[in-house]
Amino acid sequence: MRHNKKVNHLGRTKAHREAMLANMASSLIKHKRIFTTTAKAKSLRKYIEPLITKSKDSSVHSQRIVFSSLQDKYAVKELFTEISSKVMDRPGGYTRIIKTGLREGDNAAMCFIELVDYNENMLKTAKTRKQSTRTRRSRKKSAVDATVEAETTEGAAE
Asked: Example GO biological process term (predicted)?
């Protein structure tokens, strides 16, 4: 039985898995979006979200803790300067996984993992949705809608 066994080992040793996740996290920080398998993306999400949360506190201690995980000073600099300012007001959920289908060779489930605040297409649709003030449930007929509806029913009756 798999009681309390939450880590996906990804078919690798502990050292290999930690090195792979550190490299993937550095790539995600630098490029803001990477293409990988769904299993690796889910493991990467668990790995990188605490690091992004740690970057909100820009102390030297936090930078050293993040550097001990990533081992890439350029990624740490990018995380603490650019990314932390964008995600400062977000309480969590810094990454998004978008499934893209199956890989040709071995039929593995593939996906994009990206930082939420850096996808411009998704941000535009989110802003347009927030601007609308009406909701579906509480929509009331306005005077213009009532006259248009009355005209259409009169035209249908004739």
From this structure: translation
